[in-house]
């Protein structure tokens, strides 16, 4: 399934919010991503069509099994990027490292980010199994 950078950004955010509390609302997603609630509603419709999220009564958002697995995979790839950035010796604070990893993840083509996600911890990306 082909996903845009925006899809990935929303999935990562919903996954993170789901780990922080018992339920996720569109208001929380809008605040976290600094976008409007109508933008969130449109994206949730798209993600629901792709069967990655469901929307319950009162605006609560749930990741489907597929959506949750993908969000976990994306989060692991993001954490791996955060671990790799200090090797570049850019003298970034932990907050700057997290922000730079997020920006890089958003800028990478999906095929490259997915390749990174499949590499084991400490494993060179090129050695990942297809």
Protein model, in words:
This protein has 130 residues and is mainly alpha-helical. The protein has 2 domains: 5-68, Arc Repressor Mutant, subunit A (Orthogonal Bundle), CATH 1.10.10; 73-118. The protein is 62% helix and 7% strand. The chain has helices at residues 5-20, 26-33, 37-49, 65-84, 94-107, 110-118; strands at 24-25, 53-55, 60-63. A 3-stranded antiparallel β-sheet has the order 1-3-2. A hairpin with a 4-residue loop joins strand 2 and strand 3 (60-63). The longest helix is centred in the middle third of the chain and has 20 residues, at 65-84. The protein is globular.
Which descriptors apply to this entry?
Arc Repressor Mutant, subunit A, 62% helix, 6 helices, mainly alpha
* Structural shape: globular
CATH class wording of the largest domain: Mainly Alpha
- Strands of the widest sheet, in order across it, are 1-3-2
Give a short account of the largest sheet: 3 strands, antiparallel
Number of helical elements: 6
* CATH topology assignment of the largest domain: Arc Repressor Mutant, subunit A
Head-to-tail CA distance between termini: 16 Å
Global mean pLDDT: 84
User: Helices and strands: which structural class?
Assistant: mainly alpha
Portion of residues within helices: 55-70%
Show unreliable segments. Answer: 124-130
The radius of gyration over CA amounts to 15 Å
Fraction in beta strands: 5-15%
């Amino acid at each position: 399934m082909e996903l845009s950078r925006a899809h990935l950004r929303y999935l990562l955010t919903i996954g993170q919010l789901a780990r922080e509390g018992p339920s996720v609302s569109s208001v929380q997603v809008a605040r976290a991503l600094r976008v409007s609630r109508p933008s969130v509603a449109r994206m949730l419709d798209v993600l629901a069509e792709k069967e990655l999220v469901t929307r319950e009564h009162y605006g609560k958002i749930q990741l489907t099994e597929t959506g949750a697995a993908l969000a976990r995979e994306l989060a692991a790839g993001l954490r791996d990027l955060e671990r790799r950035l200090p090797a570049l010796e850019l003298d970034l604070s932990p907050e700057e490292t997290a922000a730079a990893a997020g920006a890089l993840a958003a800028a990478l083509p999906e095929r490259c980010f997915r390749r990174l996600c499949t590499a084991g911890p400490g494993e060179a990306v090129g050695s990942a199994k297809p």
